[in-house]
């Protein structure tokens, strides 16, 4: 079993055969081509792409730079590590290769050890990246399957079950109170589904960079923070589990600052939902704001069960919920990841202070802009 498949592209037949022999002796499977066009033919004819390409730059028919350009444009080949093997040491050639995404240079003349070290290091790096992304994708798939299995299925079951009951002929004689209860069940399930879908869309927009474009377009001076806090409270009140005493505390003065009002309101609503989820209905929730130096602190304080110290850094990650296996809390674990993403758009930072059994304070800390800057934005 060869250690890896390597494609060598070199127009000097003596050097080509020499490289092939060196790598073959080290248990590599070697493919060869005498110029770029021949290399593309090899790549197209092979059932699976090579694990590494080593290519000269100056070649007839198609040079190494053109070959690399075509490889990087093909989605099946784009991740193949690429080493330039060349006597050219001019800065422009190096820069051209780097712009196209070359992974390494090996200058002629070279000895066998130089070649083997370059090949082994690139293959080792590629394997490490593959293992990392494979592990990440496996974890992501598990999280998505768990969410689909529980978080989506539960509200969907409510909607379908209550709808079926309303479609039953017996529903004609149903009491008004029962009918209202069924409709509330449908509404509650539909609202949960809507919020989960919106959260997934927002996470994708953050990860793909689309939210940055929206932020740059919509950002504007926030002259008063109370309106943002009230809007967030109104959104949070739609949560059927919101049975808490919700109050607003603002310590003036709060200077104007640049923000996206809609994103800011959404992030605060996520923090309020988080407080509702992890605290009992009789416990109060406070949302507030104050200024410290050049930073506006907007925060949500609850008297819930608190976050274990070991989980403080993890809770901002998408799909993560502390002690989920113990408490089976509802939710996708996307809320705090959205908050962190929104705060990053504003050039700020997130913070949490929590004590087990006492409660937590989640803060969004945003940079202040002067009134003059705000007026020009």
Description:
This protein is of the alpha/beta class and 377 residues long. The chain folds into three domains: 5-110, Response regulator (Rossmann fold), CATH 3.40.50; 134-208, Orthogonal Bundle (Helix Hairpins), CATH 1.10.287; 211-376, 2-Layer Sandwich (Heat Shock Protein 90), CATH 3.30.565.10. Helix content is 50%, strand content 18%. The chain has helices at 13-25, 36-45, 64-72, 91-100, 112-167, 176-208, 210-218, 226-236, 261-277, 324-327, 335-345, 371-376, and strands at 5-9, 29-33, 52-55, 82-86, 104-107, 220-222, 246-250, 257-259, 285-292, 295-302, 349-355, 359-367. Helix 6 crosses helix 11 and helix 9 (261-277) packs antiparallel against helix 11. It is elongated.
Strand order of the largest sheet: 2-1-3-4-5
Rg over C-alpha atoms, rounded to the nearest angstrom: 29 Å
Which residues sit in consecutive blocks of at least 5 with pLDDT less than 50? 370-377
Count of individual beta strands: 12
- Overall structural class, as computed from helix and strand content, comes to alpha/beta
SSE order: EHEHEHEHEHHHEHEEHEEHHEEH
Instruction: Output the CATH topology of the largest domain.
Output: Heat Shock Protein 90
Shape: elongated
Strand content: 15-25%
Any idea of the CATH class of the largest domain? Answer: Alpha Beta
What is the level-2 CATH architecture name of the largest domain? 2-Layer Sandwich
Q: How many individual domains?
A: 3
**Helical stretch count?**
12
Relative helix content: 40-55%
Largest sheet: 5 strands, parallel
